[in-house]
Amino acid sequence: MSFFDTTPLGRIVNRMSKDVYAIDETIPANWSMLLSMVFSVITTICTVVYVTPWFSVILIPLGILYYASQRFFIKTSRELQRLDSVSRSPVYALLTETLEGLPTIRAFGVEPQFAARNEYMLDRNQRAYFLNISANGWLALRLELVGTIVATAAALFAVLGHEANAGMAFAGLAGVSLSYAFNVTQNLSWIVRMSSMVQTQMVSVERIYAYTTMEVEAEMKAEPIKQLELENAKWPSQGKLTFKDVDLRYRAGLPRVLRKLTFTINANEKIGIVGRTGAGKSSLVVALMRLVELDGGQITMDDVDISTIGLHDLRDKVSIIPQDPVLFSGTIRSNLDPFDRYGDDAIWTAIKRANLHQAVTALDDKVDERGQNFSVGERQLICIARALLKKSQVILMDEATASIDANTDRLIQESIRDSFKDCTCLTIAHRINTILDSDRILVMDKGSAAEFDTPNQLLKNPNGIFTNLVEHWRDEKNSP
């Protein structure tokens, strides 16, 4: 997952579009043309040498000239091709971001700024492209000069051959030789061009190959014996969570976002998680879902170390309701039950529990890309219905109601309390009032558990972080 955090979207789009197209279409076509030209040139040269044997004298110097031109060109062209590819990625990234945020851009009237950014990035890309085209022009000029030498040599040797072998028959052969010599110059130029293009386009192969050799996530499935043990034990049956000296950093060299984090959550407990921005609240979800592997420590679920569990098995047993709702183009049914595990009755029950029945008229209702035909609140309700349908023992809610109005928030909280009463729930709070009735509150500060107790006990500490957060929330609520 860290790959998507560190890699610009435009770079991925560039490699998956232009580079893949080069591998699938351009390189095979150029290879085919190159081989065709090579066989044509071999046949032509044999004919010319047969008619004018002296022509073979210049073949070696001719080959050296072509090879030197190509070798010098390749060194520059490959780097220019890389510059062209690298400078194109920001163009794709800006285009994608602009299309996604077009309503916001228009609302704030910043179209000129985005147009200026687009022109700047296009200019950067065109500089590299222009240099690449100029390099091709440089090569074309030298190939034409060498081709002129070839044609001149063929004509000269034909004249010399005519003096030694007078006759009408030889005159006809000399004419054929000259016409072939003029053709061979063009074909030799194309050979150099095609071979240069193939080698230059191998940059696309390098860029795609780099993705195939990247470090991947852990195994999706556990060892067969381990997996059988978990299935027999119906893991997780309780939902007990234990964090022991957990350290987490998103990449090597970056500071730790979780530091020696230690706490235990009992089965079926409802835990509210609060803290200031950057305290490490969402990093708990990252660690528990193994989106990033731990830098130290251990997390257990029902006394089973989650690092020994396959990623698919772990994530299949945990439901997460994210802050930003994620929907896919398709239907309500495919979004709630993408693996066709549940019947219509179960899906409708989940929809009603999530208070979504007023927005959904049929399970085959269309869902546009990213759920654009639903409001943000309705998208969040669909994600909640998805979690209700899955019936996981552990539920993670990362500020799940942050984009929902207060009335809908209240309905959702009631639905969550009723539907998830037999589950372990971790709720990262955006509104303090949504977690005041939790069994316990975990207060995060600088990646550690600063406070962890019942709401009443925490509020008894007038200097506590939780007390300050509650007072700040009350001040905002009472302010006009």
TrEMBL record:
* Top-level taxon in the UniProt lineage: Eukaryota
Check the record and name the PROSITE patterns matching this protein: ABC_TM1F, ABC_TRANSPORTER_1, ABC_TRANSPORTER_2
Q: How does it sit in the membrane?
A: Multi-pass membrane protein
List the GO molecular function terms.
ABC-type transporter activity; ATP binding; ATP hydrolysis activity
Compartment(s) where it occurs, according to its Swiss-Prot or TrEMBL record: Vacuole membrane
Which InterPro entries does the UniProt entry name for this protein? Answer: AAA+_ATPase (IPR003593), ABC1_TM_dom (IPR011527), ABC1_TM_sf (IPR036640), ABC_transporter-like_ATP-bd (IPR003439), ABC_transporter-like_CS (IPR017871), ABC_transporter_C-like (IPR050173), P-loop_NTPase (IPR027417)
List all membrane-crossing ranges: 38-68, 139-160, 166-185
Gene3D superfamilies, sorted: ABC transporter type 1, transmembrane domain (1.20.1560.10), P-loop containing nucleotide triphosphate hydrolases (3.40.50.300)
Record-given protein name: ABC transmembrane type-1 domain-containing protein
Lineage summary: Eukaryota, Sar, Stramenopiles, Oomycota, Saprolegniomycetes
